[in-house]
Design brief:
globular
């Protein structure tokens, strides 16, 4: 009887119960931990992509170097899988998977050509390629579900193949590639964008994980995929904060997104300063408008002008991605927007002349 009573007391002892519950909780987390499971399947758990030590070539400049600095090619808002019909935008643009592939290839090759013009010897230690979200069109609106060329998963796989080629080309051209990554709002699989688990409900995130796994053995290529919505990194002495930009709301019919972007950057700067995470330049996409200011760089889009922009009477902008140089002493210097395709030839216009 005493033995039975001892066993009963031991089984129902509060400390024993707590210990058992903690053990069961750990087991449940291990079983249901989708993020860890996916990472294990992809082989990226050991990479610790949310806590990456910056590559040496962007952390500090060599004492003697003729390099203009480190170039950054900002890739975001590719909207892979979306269709823009020429006849619905007055003939100023069209977009589909075939055009998307051509534009991405044109963008990375043109970036290399522009940087070769700046330094014919290509004395760059590497290139930074932020991936800023909205990489796929997604199914967040009824009209996208009805008109996308392919559904979201085939779009992810198609873009995965295209980005493998683009990143490999940049690694071969510049020697090293550093890719900070954040998710956008279009790739989500939820009705609204989640604040909790934002990345783990996004096809952008799974795309980045696929890419990181593919290039895991290539020491030239380093991914940084934080768990939150911002990616902080430094190139020499310039501190960048990469975010998608969908958190900034409302615009103005005259100044466009400048107002919400400036207000949002001010709030984000104050928030980060309060916790010792100061930055110098905010990088954002989402707005499909190329804006390059001293403390803020906003990317254009690969998709270009679409039916939504035409219906809203937004100003036309050709498909554009941002390219610039970060110098070890002067920070952001050369600014070179990359047009994602060769623009059409414009008809010559004669100057007004006064008869003699």
């Amino acid at each position: 009887m005493a033995k039975t009573l001892s066993e009963f007391r031991a089984k129902h002892d509060p400390l024993t119960i707590i210990s058992r519950l903690e053990s069961e909780l750990r087991a449940a987390n291990e079983k249901l931990g989708l993020e860890s499971t996916i990472k294990d399947l992809l082989g990226t758990t050991v990479l610790r992509l949310d806590h990456v030590k910056p590559p040496a070539w962007i952390a500090s400049a060599p004492k003697k170097s003729a390099s203009p600095g480190v170039p950054t090619l900002f890739l975001s808002d590719l909207h892979w899988g979306e269709v823009v019909r020429s006849e619905q935008v007055n003939g100023v643009n069209r977009y589909n998977l075939e055009i998307a592939r051509k534009r991405l290839r044109h963008t990375v090759e043109t970036a290399a050509d522009l940087l070769r013009i700046l330094d014919k010897d290509m004395r760059y230690p590497g290139i930074v390629v932020p991936l800023g979200g909205d990489m796929v069109s997604g199914n967040i609106h009824d009209e996208l579900r009805a008109t996308n060329e392919v559904n979201i998963m085939p779009a992810v796989l198609d873009l995965f193949e295209a980005l493998i080629g683009a990143i490999g080309f940049l690694a071969d051209t510049f020697g090293h590639v550093f890719l900070p990554c954040v998710s956008g709002n279009h790739g989500r699989d939820t009705l609204k964008t989640w604040a909790k688990d934002r990345n783990h409900t996004s096809f952008d995130w799974i795309l980045y994980q696929f890419l990181a796994r593919h290039f895991a053995a290539d020491k030239r290529i380093v991914f940084h995929i934080p768990a939150g919505s911002d990616a902080l990194y430094r190139v020499y002495g310039t501190r960048y904060n990469l975010t998608h930009g969908d958190q900034f709301k409302a615009g103005d019919s005259i100044i466009g997104p400048i107002g919400p972007l400036m207000r949002g950057n001010q709030k984000k700067t104050a928030r980060n300063q309060a916790v010792g995470q100061d930055y110098d330049v905010m990088l954002a996409g989402h707005w499909h408008q190329y804006i390059h200011l001293a403390r803020m760089i906003v990317n254009g889009s690969l998709k270009g002008y679409d039916e939504y922009a035409a219906a809203g009477n937004f100003g036309f902008e050709p498909p554009t991605q941002a390219l610039w140089i970060t110098h070890p002493r002067f920070g952001v210097t050369y600014r070179m927007p990359v047009y994602c395709e060769t623009p059409p030839q414009r008809a010559a216009t004669e100057w007004v002349s006064v008869p003699s």
